[in-house]
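Note to self: keep these together.
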Amino acid sequence: MRVATENIANANSTAATPGGDPYRRKLVSFGRMVDRGTGAELVRTDNIRPDSRSFRTQFDPAHPAADEQGYVKLPNVDPLIEQADMRAAGRSYEASIAVMQQARALYGKTLDILRS
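Structure:
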């Protein structure tokens, strides 16, 4: 969610110098690892890398970041995609919390059965 938020915050960030590159969208990739203590498979952030898609351009010769032809490079960020990514991450988090709550309830019931 942090990377998607950063992408949205910089969706309109242009270059500081004429003809320079604006903010480049970041992508997150995930990897799996096994917890040695429990043997459970865990998902973790594997890599955060820049998106290689090209920048959008807009004709605006008065803009301070415009090149010699008057075009300004705009970030390759689509706020709609970032919002969808944030929504998916939020739902994944909520699902994980629900699984942990269910597991805790089942462990509690198992202990109650073993005590009686």
